[in-house]
Amino acid sequence: MESFSDLPEDILVKIMSWLPPESLFRFKCVQKLWYILITSLVIKNDPFFVAKHLRNSNKKTSIFFRCIKDEKKLQEGFLNIYKNDGNNSSSDVLSYAIKYFKPQSRKYYDSFPKGYDDIDKVYKVVKISGYWFDDLTAQVYTLGINDSWREIKMREGTDDCDLFCDKTVCCKGVSYWLLFNVHTFEVIIYSFDMHDEEFRTIPLPDKFQTSSRGYVLDWDTSLTELNESLALFYHPKDKYGTVSPIEMWIMYESSEGHKFWCKHLSIDPVGGIYKIPILFWKSDELLMMENKKGLVSCNILTKRVRRLHNRKLSTFISFGYVKEFGFS
Amino acid sequence: MSSSSTTTTTTRLLMLKASDGVTFEVEEAVATKLGAINNMVEEEGSEDLICLPNVNGKFLGMVLEWCKKHANNNTNSDKGNDEVNKWWDKEFVMDLDQNTLYHLLMAADYLSGTELVDLLTEKVASMIRGKKVEEIRETFKIKSDFLPGQEEEIRKKNSWAFE
Q: What is this model's ipTM?
């Protein structure tokens, strides 16, 4: 009687494309063939495997985070959220796992969102770095093509800018950042096209433009992604005083390429307490942070709030959206 | 059972002959959900009998049953069909044992039934996802061929995956 061991390698690869990273890494121990196969698929970031895995892994969301763990140590890791779909939607179970990295065992670019250049069929990673009074610099890494970062020229006028937060969002082959001017505190959205490798600036919703100065946003403002569109969480300025809802805006693009913003929803404070929205890990489930420590998932449609993490072990600093493979 | 009906006069019927001689009469629209058959129909044209020496009748029957369901569900073009297909796919793979899964996968792959291969590989993955290394070896009937110490080294490097 035949068994799975007789399956040809290409089918085995297809099976592996449905496995979560932890299973894949565990199965490297099964035998030499599996070790070689998984290593070549995963470590070398085989673009077709990664693309397929990306499509297949919609039941789990991996979110990269930085936090301060016990003894004030800076730690990085992945928060994996699983949704086990039962036969009816009421029986769905939410579970999560936090995996911390060993800092030395991780490739540097894993924590950056990868963008897919659909025309050249390659994955690229872009990072912008630079601190106060240092000029910002941008570098690109093309996975599997060259093993080094290439410097990319930024647009003129960014000399006085700094990163608003270190969260990058990547959707439909374009990466986005929030930059701010260190003198005027004006905020702009800066984008990078993975294919033509050009930087561009994108205006914020008209509503945010004050008459005297440009866009001045609250520090909890952040970019995110929803259904492959760029989205912005906007915190009205008086939130500490009057408790007004956080707004979420989505950028749409017309068929002529014209970009426009629409207000998508308002997020009321849950139980009168502000929770900072982080990102949508599923189309209707929003991950939110409470007091920099607790994590909750809030369903936008049913308003159901589920607590994910409330141990006082770590203080979360930042989150990045990592749908794709990223691992040690 | 033949489901002849007067409304399908425009639908061409194909005869598919499996390795053990069993034949199936299938509507062209159903059979061409399989990439391999679609190619044969397009390239070779008028041939109505297609011999498939690599697939046995039992599994060809199952593959065609899947094609038929998907072809039927796709003709009524409303949005609920995705849900119907998903539900039906779940039923289809629910109780498959390893031997059947193996032969179905080989048949679907040979016939280039991409969607069916996706469904079946996902099923296999769901069966092995949470398993221990030893259990995988048992399921796949394979033995470790690492040198002494090598396996421990890999385990140590990937310790997070074993928690």
A: 0.88
Same domain for A29 and A155, yes or no, is: no
**Nearest Cα residue in chain B from A28:** B154
Check: pTM over 0.80? Answer yes or no.
no
Tell whether A307 and A199 lie within a shared domain: yes
Stretches in chain B below the pLDDT threshold 70:
1-10, 45-47, 74-80, 160, 163
What integer is the mean pLDDT of A85-95? 44
Are the Cβ atoms of A6 and B158 closer than 8 angstroms? no
The edge-to-edge listing of strands for the beta sheet with A246-253 is A222-226, A229-234, A246-253, A259-267
Burial of A314 (0-12, 13-18, 19+ CB in 10 A): buried
Per-residue pLDDT tens digits for A100-158:
766 544 444 455 666 777 777 777 878 787 655 567 788 888 776 666 778 888 887 77
- Is the CB of A29 less than 8 angstroms away from the CB of B102? no
Residue B128 and residue A328: Cβ atoms within 8 Å?
Answer: no
The C-alpha of B115 sits at a distance from chain A's nearest C-alpha, in angstroms, of: 12
Residue type, A209: Q
Contacts of B159 in chain A (CB under 8 A): none
Q: Which domain holds residue A32?
A: 9-55
Set of chain B residues whose Cβ sits within 8 Å of the Cβ of A17: 121
- Domains of chain B, by residue range, sit at 13-142
Q: Which residue of B has its CA nearest to A53?
A: B122
B162 in Cβ contact with B131 (< 8 Å): no
Q: Is the Cβ–Cβ distance between B60 and B39 less than 8 Å?
A: no
Q: What topology does CATH give the domain B13-142?
A: Potassium Channel Kv1.1; Chain A (3.30.710)
